[in-house]
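#struct-pred

JT: dropping the chains for the assembly here, can someone run the whole complex?
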Amino acid sequence: GAVVSQHPSWVICKSGTSVKIECRSLDFQATTMFWYRQFPKQSLMLMATSNEGSKATYEQGVEKDKFLINHASLTLSTLTVTSAHPEDSSFYICSAPGGSYEQYFGPGTRLTVT
Amino acid sequence: DAKTTQPTSMDCAEGRAANLPCNHSTISGNEYVYWYRQIHSQGPQYIIHGLKNNETNEMASLIITEDRKSSTLILPHATLRDTAVYYCISRAGTASKLTFGTGTRLQVTL
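RK: done, full complex below.
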C-alpha cells in the first residue's frame, strides 16, 4: 500500500525555537495533505489542510502564524511550529488521501518543548 | 460529517471475536462508515469502510444495520497485536478530512 513518511520521528527543542516537521508521500502524489495534533490520551484533532500550490486551510482556533504550513510539491508538506512553547508538546501526524477511499497516515512526530 | 458514538473501552480474550459497536444515527445517505485503528504512538491505520452493505476484508468485517444508524466492526480472531484505539468515522467523499471521535480502546488479553 501507499506510504507516508514523517521526519523527524521525534524532536526535542528549547522554548522559543522553531521546529520543522516534514510529511512525504513516498509512492504517490498528494495535492492535499492533512495535519493533526494529538495530546496524550486524547483523540486526533485536525489542525489544517495543506494544499499544493495554494495556502493552507486552518481549523478554527489554530493559529496560522504559529503553525506554518508549506506544500512545496506534490509529495511534500511541511509544518513549522514557530516560537515553540511547552504547551505545543504533542504528537503531530500527517495524512494524505490515496486511491479512491483511503487516507494514509504518517507514523507521527513527537515534539517535546523544554 | 455525522457524529459517531462508541464505547470508551472494551476487553477481548485472545482468539475470540472482538465486536466493536458504533452509533451513527444522524448519518446521511452519501456518508460512508470508516474504521481506523491507532496502535500506541503510531499513525492511524485504515481497516475497512462501507456504505450500506456488509463488507469483509483480510482484517475485519463490517456489519451495517439496514437503517444505517449503527454498525459493528468484527475482528474474527483477536490477537494481542490488535490492542489499539479503534475509531469509527462517517464521511462523505473520499479526499475530505477525517474527524476523529474518542474511539474505543480495545484491550486484547491472554
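JT: nice. The two ends of chain B are 37 Å apart (CA to CA). The first strand of chain B starts at residue 9 and ends at 13.
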